Structures are given as structure tokens and as C-alpha cells.
């Protein structure tokens, strides 16, 4: 999503743009997410610091967070920084910076959806954050009211009866929900990225599907060596998600990127059960989404090495809890999907130029919100590349802040 969005904005401004991807667009992390353009997500996910949450997570049996010792060791330094930046005072400073970017997401997606002819993939009915306990719902509603007052995020509080009216197939023992009214949902996230990529090509953009073998500064700016040959250009945008760290390191640039892996599986529904909205089981930590491919169950975060084999117990635990909430049918996919979210220690993406490397630009590290923030990132980066003043302060997202 991020790379395609950057490419689309640049080609619309008259640049000659080549997009290089080892797979067709929309087949990596953008394919497997929950499919929500999350206007309400003005608060990034902090590292848990309270003793209760840490003790809950420590046995490593939860749905929302799992970890592997090897993965924790590999990312020890960025995780320590993540914990440090999640302290209340630091986190309070990060939230408005992050919210300034989230606030652009809908207006940035809208023209791309129109240009791509992708209206049939998008619904504008918000999504539901469901709670099993009154106490947890009350705490979250207090935060929701603060987000509405400070950042213009609209919501509606639902009691158990109102929730049942909207979603009669859910379990009956629920306390209620928050209906986030602003976000848009997408029935095929990978399909939306592909539609954006086709719109990019229709504007004259070029897509090369090939594995990158190397990159270096050249007399013409930058040279990217692929298995299909060399590509050169005045500017190079690094939008490689979780792989960005390794490629930047070949240029002597260190960015403390780490990954939160996630899984999904599609299911049918039992009998006449129907899911009308995207539904998050908030106190457990998974989400159910009624997509074209079936009911998609997405898991929380797994702290593990990027290329380590999949560990499927987290998905199995989520499935067990989901069957308590909604009558899921049989699995529809031959095997679970696995992806990796590129995360930074201060929870903010990296967007902008690399100091000392003329023509090299970054657009990665969006964590849980690459699907949401891709178009806004593309718009802002294009403004920066053309020497315009970006519409928000980009200082919090610079690459050398680490």
C-alpha cells in the first residue's frame, strides 16, 4: 500500500516512476490486514508497562500478544526503546504527532479510490469494538470521548441491546460496544492495492516485478539492480516495509526497525448467521471481518524474527475465542496467512529524505497502520520531494531522529 501510494502520487505530478516489487502489488502485509482505514486510530499501540498486563502476557498463551525468545533477543534494543517511549510522558507527546498523520487518511484515500474505480470494495459504515465486561467498556469510552474532543473522531456507545440489534448473530453475554463511525472498511485489502496499482499504470507508471539484488548511488542518482536488469533514476524511495532496515544497512544507515507478525484465516458461517460489520473482540485481541473471501479472523501481534517459520497456536487460540463470539464455520483457506508489520521504537513511521544521501527517501515503519496511512504518506512525501511545504509538520517522522 505504501509503495503503490507513493508511486501514484508522483506519477500524477508528472514524474516518470518505476515501481519495483518482488511480488505483484498488494500481496505482502497489505494483503493480510483487517481491511480498515482506521480514522479512529489516533493512538498508536504502546508497549504494555502496567504489571497486570505484563503478568497476563508472560505465560505466552494470550491472543493479543505472543513472543518468541529468539525474536525478543534479536530485537532487544528497539524493544527496550519501545518500552521507554511508551512511558506516560513520552507517549503523551507522541499521540498528537501520530494523530496528525491519521487525520489525513480518509481524504487521502478518497481520490485514489475514485481514480481506481474501487468504490465497490469500500464501505463507509464504521466498525465495532466489542466488550465482554462493563468495566473495560467504560474505560475505553472515556478514551473515546477524549479522542473525539481532541482529534474529531466520532463514535457511538452501544449497550448490549443496541449491539444485538446491529449484530444479532453475536453471543448474548456481551456488555456492549463502541461503534467507530468515521473509518471505512475494505472487503478485499489486497484487491484495493491492486486497483491503486492499475490506476498508477493508467497514469503512465511502470511496474517491474523482480527481486532486488542491490542498490547504489550512481552518476544519474540511484541504480537498483534486479534479477531482470538495472533500473536508474534521480530519486529512490525506500518503501520496503520490514525489509527496509536490511537494505538501508547496506548503505551504512541504521534504523531500529522490528516486526510484529500476524496471521489470518477465512471461515464460513454456520446456518443463517451473518456478520454485518467488522467486529473486534477488544478484551481478547482479534478481529472478525466479513470479506469477499469469507469471514477473516486476524490475530494480534507476535514478536518473532521476520523470516522465522509460522507458529500457529496464537491463531488457534483466537479461533477458539472467536467461536464463542460468533458461529464460525469451516476454515476456507488451505493454510493460514502470515505477515509482518514494520514497527519503530517510537511508534511513528519514517517519512522523508535521508541526510547525506541525495535523492534517497524513506516511507516505511507504519506498524499496524500501513494500509490506513499509505495514501497520506504518498501525498506528503510527494510534497517534500517537490520542495513544497507539507500540510503537516514532518519533523516527528524524519529518518535521523533515532
TrEMBL record:
Residues of the FAD dependent oxidoreductase domain: 1-384
Keywords linked to the UniProt accession: Oxidoreductase
One Pfam family from the record: DAO
GO molecular function, one term: oxidoreductase activity
Protein name as it appears in the record: D-amino acid dehydrogenase
GO CC annotations on file: cytoplasm
Organism: Halomonas beimenensis
UniProt-listed InterPro entries: FAD-dep_OxRdtase, FAD/NAD-bd_sf
Parts forming coiled coils: none
Lineage summary: Bacteria, Pseudomonadati, Pseudomonadota, Gammaproteobacteria, Oceanospirillales
Cross-referenced Gene3D superfamilies: D-Amino Acid Oxidase, subunit A, domain 2 (3.30.9.10), FAD/NAD(P)-binding domain (3.50.50.60)
